[in-house]
Write a structure and sequence with these properties.
The chain is mainly beta. The protein has helices spanning 38-53, 76-90, 92-95, 122-128, 130-133, 177-192, 220-229, and strands at residues 3-6, 22-27, 60-65, 103-105, 139-143, 150-157, 160-167, 197-202, 209-210, 235-240, 246-252, 258-264, 277-283, 288-294, 334-337, 346-356, 359-369, 372-380, 387-393, 402-408, 414-424, 429-431, 435-439, 447-449, 456-460, 467-475, 480-488, 492-496, 503-510, 515-522. Strand 13 (277-283) and strand 14 form a beta hairpin.
Length: 524
């Protein structure tokens, strides 16, 4: 029988619901950082290192890659360079975040092999597939099932909740049946998460230039995206690359909401792009978004966004500074008006599902609650048909962080899908992201020994898990204390535990097909 483990974790200091400024970073086309030599490779890493270094000071809450991650999807070296750069923002130690800085990636035409062939994403999924993200609390899921070609993420900033959907490059015109399926999936997500502010990232949405000058027209896929999704009043921003310059337009959705579309792509700049980032600083108290272009490589020393006014543009590696129109143009900072004053009833954070032995541990937190009746935990065998697993009462009204957990003692073999259905007292409902854990019972499950352990922990892996595997050790507070990423070729792997203090730890084993967690005790 399932059992509820409900704990109310009360902070000694109440959370002040004051909207803080926060930042979202767009990574324009990075393809030439991967094929333009060692200097360009270093510039790529400098971009993500700058994001890590400035995460706290700029309150960076999300990073979105706009596609064309690599130049040639069949070149393993290109993917290794990209993994090295994005690995910096995943590091729980340097970012001080258990899941790293939340991020998502668009599949561009150069990330497909053969190029410009929608769905030819085997190389992309090998390096940035579902298994890389499924254990991260912000990851919502991918489409089609089991692939990360299209994906969505849930994150928060300044007390506001967001959904961002990343859509694969698809130049079919008219839209192919597959593209219509993708758009129907995205449409359903925006309906399910109608209480979250919505952003779309896709590789090619608009052309270069400024709408005011008669430019920045929609591409075929961009037009299909807008036509299908502009009836959602929570959609306010679309981001793209592909065209080697900049572009901006604003359109009015069916419900009267402004939908901004921004293009940024600096691949024609020297050194693969010279490190230019698109920085979007949200100021809820001022109801605006300041959009700037900045390169850590050409920082003038005081961090001025875009480095305008103190350093001549041509000394920063720029080819043109007119913005919105010229090949290689880079704009001065500009501002978008956007209303961010609408409060949301429940701020759900850190929803996780982990395999603990033969059980599923489901846990989540709320940063604040208003009129929260409670949570219905739902379970599915296929991610489509859902049933009620359990009910957990909410607190109702609180500004104190609350922690909840539930144990499913009867998971079945294979994939187990979970989500939360949050209900207000007026029966208004919202849904969480979907979490999935895969149970491989019997001989297919990894084994660890000895337990307790003194100096060396041995892991016996099933042969089906050979390949890239991450071993992560967490202490009883959930802090990551050791990480090993290897290409597993043997069935047996050992971890030196001599540096660990005595106590209870958890070993997370993440392969390309599953994530499992095992408790163990360290003795001295």
């Amino acid at each position: 029988m399932n059992r509820i483990l409900l704990s109310l974790f009360s902070c000694f200091i109440s959370i002040q619901l004051v909207a803080q400024d926060f930042t979202i970073i767009a990574m324009p086309d990075t393809q030439h950082y991967c094929d333009d030599g060692p200097t360009s490779e270093l510039i790529f890493a400098a971009q993500t290192q700058w994001i890590v270094d400035n995460r706290a000071s700029k309150n960076i809450v999300f990073v979105t890659g706009l596609g064309d991650i690599v130049q040639n999807a069949n070149d393993e070296d290109h993917w290794d360079i990209a993994e090295g750069a994005y690995g910096l923002i995943e590091d729980p130690v340097t970012t001080t975040l258990l899941d790293g800085i939340p991020y998502g990636l668009v599949v561009g035409n150069h990330d497909q092999w053969p190029k410009r062939t929608t769905g030819s994403t085997s190389e992309f999924n090998l390096h940035f597939g579902v298994s890389r993200f499924s254990s991260r609390g912000y990851y919502g899921g991918g489409f089609p099932a089991g692939k990360n070609d299209n994906s969505y993420q849930l994150f928060s900033g300044g007390g506001l909740d967001f959904i961002i959907i990343h859509l694969e490059f698809d130049e079919s015109d008219p839209p192919s049946p597959h593209q219509l399926d993708v758009l129907a999936w995205a449409d359903g997500l925006l309906t399910t998460y109608s209480n979250r502010r919505a952003i779309i990232s896709s590789h090619y949405i608009i052309d270069r230039g400024n709408q005011a000058d008669g430019d920045a027209g929609f591409g075929d896929q961009g037009e299909a995206i807008f036509d299908e999704l502009s009836d959602h009043e929570n959609l306010f921003l679309m981001l793209g690359g592909h065209e080697a310059t900049e572009g901006e337009r604003v359109d009015v959705g069916t419900n009267g909401n402004n939908i901004y579309t921004l293009l940024s792509d600096y691949q024609n700049q020297p050194n693969g792009g010279n490190g230019w980032l698109r920085i979007m600083e949200f100021s809820p108290s001022n109801d605006n978004i300041t959009v700037s272009t900045y390169s850590p490589t050409f920082d003038n020393g005081n961090g001025t966004l875009g480095a305008y006014g103190t350093t001549p543009f041509n000394q920063m590696g720029g080819l043109s500074s007119n913005g919105f129109g010229g090949d290689g143009s880079i704009s001065a900072p500009f501002t978008l008006v956007y209303n961010m004053t609408i409060p949301l009833p429940v701020e759900l954070t850190n929803f996780q599902v982990r395999q603990e032995g033969k059980e599923s541990l489901i846990s989540w937190e709320t940063a604040s609650e208003e009129n929260n009746k409670g949570f219905e935990i739902q379970k599915s065998n296929d991610g489509v048909s859902w049933g009620k697993l359990a009910w957990v009462d909410g607190i109702g009204i609180t500004s104190i962080t609350q922690s909840y957990s539930y144990v499913d003692t009867e998971p079945h073999r294979g994939d187990n899908y979970y989500r939360l259905r949050q209900l207000d007292y007026d029966d208004t409902e919202t849904f969480s992201a979907v979490r999935v854990v895969n149970f491989k019972f019997g001989l297919e499950a990894p084994k660890i020994y000895p337990n307790p352990v003194l100096d060396e922990l041995t892991i016996q892996m099933p042969r089906s898990n050979n390949g890239k595997v991450t071993f992560e050790i967490r202490d009883i507070m959930g802090r990551v204390v050791m990480v090993e990423k290897i290409n597993l070729e043997d069935d047996i792997h050992t971890i030196n535990t001599s540096s660990l203090d005595s106590g209870v730890y958890y070993l997370d084993i993440q392969s390309q097909s599953s994530l499992v967690s095992y408790p163990f005790t360290k003795t001295n």
